[in-house]
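Worked example 3 (structure in, sequence out).
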């Protein structure tokens, strides 16, 4: 024992390095063990769904998974196979996996849309946006069918803004993925709004979170360039961006319409078809009755116009703050004040990395159902639409209320309902 202690003392550098390496290796192995326990518990819970008896005449539920293997720097495929695929197969679903890294996706989507009970999107924000864009290329009947199919979201991408609305926060990636997959099996859904963003000549782009245009977004996309600064990289990116022309003003013209009244939800079960004699009677009565002329006056749209000069403009859905009982449909337009100090810019930029669509004090907040953003000629820069970059141009943004139904964790739905009651 004395010789061992003497050797450790004489070679203290190697001993210290070995101890650190051994400690790191033990921590890594313990983390892997905990991840395996999480996977096993999730599979056991999914097995309970698979063991439920169903009548012989009832077909298996069919699930179509749209997997983006390029998400999370190419790791999405492996994450899905390890954490989500076993849960889906054990639950008794008939699973079809479609990879979104090839051409002709719209045609393949058309073939599958008529033969699926639920859709699962496995990827990040860009995968959700890409799938909705492909559906928009199809016929109107297929689009209507797509809107009625419940959608599950498995967060595998680098940015998964939607997961914060649907699932509880978790710092463990395996737990986050397994919780999202189990939420699909539990069947609770919430309706989410969608923004349709259309340029003058471009195909429309769809966003579940929203659109950002301004200095905070421009600085945020450069954070990864300062990776060598570790936890200071976010502040560094915003600090160095202040070396440009200051203050950084973004000027535009905005036209918008106010909120619209929310119509009542359509019943999920369709009323039964009336008997044949009733339908014949109605048909004959409508045929013989004299046509009536209806003169319905259409109220002119009350557009409001605003000239703006801002450090950043954001147009966001209300999906982050779900309220299932509200009586109006609208999106939030946040016009931030152009007068901001460099210190406030750096501090607020770090906050916006966590909550991109936060609207700080002193900003002008507008509720609108539709808006038109006109940019001065020669405007450079980019929009951030659900964390995807697009060239800045004049656009029309239209709210599509309760367009899609997403599976969510029952705990999150319960929180939403409790908040509405309070």
């Amino acid at each position: 024992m004395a010789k061992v202690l003497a050797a450790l003392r004489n070679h203290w550098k190697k001993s210290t390095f070995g101890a650190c390496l051994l400690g790191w290796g033990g921590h890594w192995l313990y983390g892997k063990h905990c991840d395996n326990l999480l996977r096993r518990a999730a599979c056991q819970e999914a097995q309970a769904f698979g063991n439920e008896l169903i009548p012989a005449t009832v077909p298996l539920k069919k699930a179509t998974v749209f997997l983006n293997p390029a998400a999370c720097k190419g790791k999405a495929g492996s994450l899905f196979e390890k954490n989500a695929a076993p849960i889906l197969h054990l639950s008794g679903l008939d699973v079809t996996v479609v990879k979104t890294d090839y051409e002709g996706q719209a045609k393949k989507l058309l073939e599958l849309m008529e033969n699926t009970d639920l859709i699962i999107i496995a990827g990040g924000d860009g995968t959700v946006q890409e799938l909705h864009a492909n559906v928009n290329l199809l016929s109107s009947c297929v689009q209507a069918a797509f809107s009625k199919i419940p959608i599950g979201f498995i967060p595998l991408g680098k940015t998964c803004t939607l997961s914060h609305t649907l699932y509880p926060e978790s710092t463990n990636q395996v737990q986050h993925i397994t919780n999202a997959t189990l939420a699909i099996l539990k069947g609770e859904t919430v309706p989410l709004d969608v923004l349709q963003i259309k340029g003058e000549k471009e195909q429309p782009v769809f966003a579940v979170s929203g659109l950002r245009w301004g200095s905070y977004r421009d600085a945020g996309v450069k954070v990864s360039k300062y990776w060598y600064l570790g936890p200071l990289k976010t502040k560094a990116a915003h600090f160095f961006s202040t070396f440009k022309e200051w203050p950084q003003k973004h000027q535009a013209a905005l036209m918008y319409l106010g909120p619209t009244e929310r119509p009542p939800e359509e019943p999920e079960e369709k009323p039964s078809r009336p008997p044949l004699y009733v339908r014949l009677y109605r048909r004959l009565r409508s045929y013989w009755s004299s046509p009536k002329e209806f003169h319905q006056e259409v109220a002119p749209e009350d557009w409001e116009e605003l000239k703006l000069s801002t450090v950043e403009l954001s147009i966001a859905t209300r999906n982050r703050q779900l309220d299932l009982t509200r009586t109006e449909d609208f999106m939030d337009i946040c016009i931030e004040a152009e007068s901001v100090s460099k210190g406030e810019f750096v501090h607020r930029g770090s906050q916006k990395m966590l909550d991109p669509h936060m609207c700080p004090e002193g900003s002008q907040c507008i509720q609108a159902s539709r808006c038109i953003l006109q940019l001065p000629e020669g405007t450079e820069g980019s929009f951030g639409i659900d964390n995807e970059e697009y060239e800045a141009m004049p656009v029309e943004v239209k709210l599509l209320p309760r367009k899609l139904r997403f599976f969510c964790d029952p705990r999150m739905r319960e929180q939403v309902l409790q908040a509405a009651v309070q």
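Notes: The domain at 210-262+301-403 is CATH 2.60.200.40 (Tumour Suppressor Smad4). The chain has two domains: 21-50+58-187, 210-262+301-403.
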